[in-house]
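Narrative of activities, Objective 1.

The group set out to show that a structural description can be obtained from nothing but a protein's sequence at a throughput compatible with the screening campaign. Below is one input-output pair from the validation batch, recorded exactly as produced.
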Amino acid sequence: MKDKELEVKEAMVAFKPTSHICQHLCAFHFYAHDLSRQVEAHHYCSKGEEDGVMFQCIIYDDDAPSAKLIGVEYIISRDTYASLDSEEQKLWHSHAYEVQSGMLYDPKGDSRADLPHMEALMTTYGKTWHTWQVDQGHKVPLGDCMVPE
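Output recorded for this entry:
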C-alpha cells in the first residue's frame, strides 16, 4: 500500500501535462459578440501532435503568479483546417492577420513575423473559449464561455 501512496504523490507533484509547455505567446483577444471588448491573453502552449492538434494552450490574463486562468485554445495546421467541414471551419480563426498585425506576439523574444516560429504560426488556425470575462471585473468565472474573434 505504501508504494501505491508514493506513486500517487509523485504523479501529483510531476505536473506531467503542464511540464510540456514549451511556448509563451501573447495576444489581444476581442470577443466575437462585442468587438469593443478586448482582453490581454497569455497563452502557455504545449505541443499536441496527435490527431492534427499542433498545440494546446492554457490562457491567462497576465504572466504574473496571481494570473487568472481565463480560457483554452487549440491550434491546428492549415491542412487539418482544410479537412474540416465548412460548419466546423466557422469556429476556427486564422493566425495570419494576428501575427502580421502584431496582435499575436512572443512576449519574451523578437516577434517579427518573418522569424521562423512566428512565420510558422501564420499558417495555423485556432479555436478558443474564454471561461472568465476578467474585463467585466468578475471575481469568479460567471456566465457562458465566450468565443473571442
